[in-house]
Amino acid sequence: AQSVAQPEDQVNVAEGNPLTVKCTYSVSGNPYLFWYVQYPNRGLQFLLKYITGDNLVKGSYGFEAEFNKSQTSFHLKKPSALVSDSALYFCAVRDPNTGFQKLVFGTGTRLLVSP
Amino acid sequence: DTAVSQTPKYLVTQMGNDKSIKCEQNLGHDTMYWYKQDSKKFLKIMFSYNNKELIINETVPNRFSPKSPDKAHLNLHINSLELGDSAVYFCASSPRTSGGAGELFFGEGSRLTVL
What we know:
The complex is a heterodimer. By secondary structure, chain A is mainly beta. Chain A has strands at 3-5, 10-14, 19-21, 24-26, 32-38, 44-50, 56-58, 64-68, 73-78, 87-94, 104-105, 109-114. In chain A, strands 2, 5, 6, 10, 11 and 12 form a six-stranded mixed β-sheet that branches. In chain A, strands 3-9-8-7 form a four-stranded antiparallel β-sheet, with no helix packed on it. By secondary structure, chain B is an all-beta fold. Chain B is built from no helices and eleven strands. In chain B, the strands form two sheets. In chain B, strands 2, 4, 5, 6, 9, 10 and 11 form a seven-stranded mixed β-sheet that branches. In chain B, strand 5 and strand 6 form a beta hairpin. Chain A binds chain B through residues 32, 34, 36, 38, 41-46, 49, 51, 88, 90, 94, 96, 99-105, 107-108, and chain B through 4, 31, 33, 35, 40-45, 48, 50, 55-56, 90, 92, 94, 99-101, 103-109.
């Protein structure tokens, strides 16, 4: 069964600095990988996804993520953090070989960007 | 126009009661989901319907019964509510793209509090 791990409960970064939110995954075949953001008392919003092709994926709000098959990772990055980026970030994986509709989420990482 | 809408947004009820949460999507998607987010923000899939047909049924107590009258609606009925059912329930939908590459679109959530 597919799974995803987010090793950091919280990431702190100063505004203007680069940020990285880590994610590693486990699937039997080639994964479909997703990042979502959740603001307080809101639903999850899609940021970006990796399905196939270029390992560097660009998404909404200046975020990008790099798929690394050898390290089974899909870390979320942004070159310059904004205070408004402070939110809860979820990585998710879908294994197209075992049930194409089941999207499994990580435990979430809280990003705090200080002014 | 709200793409995925859930009602009610807040629900406070007593143990033992029965309650329903309704979800509607106007995106034309074929697949809809219910996810549960607990107090630690963990997200777990409960059910998924594809064009009114149940395709994912995770280990969820029988007290939870989803119903999909058409592909734009997915309701969740909960019988004999327990304290542990307190959570935020998210409805989501996704397009039926080839191999499951489509992202999920989430509603704003329904916060259920059982007293």
